[in-house]
Amino acid sequence: MSSNTLAQAAETTKMQKFFKSNFWYSFTRDKVAIVSFTIFVILAGAALLAPVIAPTNPYDMAAIDIMDSELPPSWSEEGDERFLLGTDDQGRDLLSTILYGMRTSLTIGLCAVMLQMFLGVVIGLSSGYFGGRMDSFLMRMADIQLSFSTMMVAIIVLAVFQASFGSELYSKLAMLMLILVIGIAEWPQYARTIRASVLAEKKKEYVEAARVMGFGSGRIMFRHILPNCLSPILVISTVQIANAIISEAALSFLGLGMPVSQPSLGALISSGFEYIFSGSWWITVIPGIVLVVLVLVMNLLGDWLRDVMNPKLYKG
């Protein structure tokens, strides 16, 4: 048999094992998980394909007419057929800005969680594996970090940065700053969970066997122990992405997140809040609904993953 045939056979076997696994079985029998996953895929796919499916480009100033500002959705009497969900205060098509805004919010959420995961996994592995003074020092650092809320740290850091370097530079670095602040503020969630898993795993026979074979600490931690700690990481990540998106939206609402020229869901909600009582409710309400739905389905998926990954909780 050729190498291609063997590779195809191996892939077929993996797919068959996946479809026969408890993970797939529980997913197909959980209607909430199916609906949540479907909605998330639709929203994430729409955000990813925003440049293709969006009616207009909210970044293209030549395509925006200020005379079209605050037009209601097309289904209302005063609506315009060109704008399905209406327009914002700058005359941008709201559907387009929501699609691009979801893209920005998801990018910040995913990148911030990747940073959290990297820091938390490295610190948690080191703390649990080496123990002793290193464990005490790293966990006290985590306790200190947890004593400050993410929002408080983010507000202080971003406000100081904006005041020190000016709004123009901040607008250019807003996404990077949000990723760094949200990511660094939340690493203890991963570190403490990974540490607990490592404390249980490092006493098992396969770790002792790896030590006897002369493997280094780094290889044992990342090649042998870490793969057995992936389940809690996956569950935490699902919830943390939703939390990161909420944090970004809250900071944008407070004027410390994404600038108006680079719409995120939080920035859209913030920009339309002053118009909500004047009758232009759609500028804030529709992006708010999208944000709530996005966060809700991710939290529901996180709850389902937690139950499936923990046999003691999952009842089938």
What does this structure look like?
With 316 residues, the chain is an all-alpha fold. Helix 3 packs across helix 5. The mean pLDDT is 79. Its main location: membrane.
Q: Tally the helices: what do you get? A: 14
What share of residues is helical? over 70%
What amount of the residues lies in strands?
under 5%
Domain count: 1
Largest sheet: none
Features:
316 residues, mainly alpha, MetI-like fold, transmembrane, transport, transmembrane helix
What is shown here, in short?
The chain has 316 residues and is mainly alpha-helical. It is built from 14 helices and no strands.
Question: Can you lay out the helices and strands and say which pair or pack?
Answer:
Elements (H helix, E strand, L loop, with lengths): L2 H17 L2 H7 L2 H18 L1 H4 L40 H37 L1 H15 L3 H16 L1 H19 L1 H15 L3 H8 L4 H9 L4 H24 L11 H9 L8 H28 L7
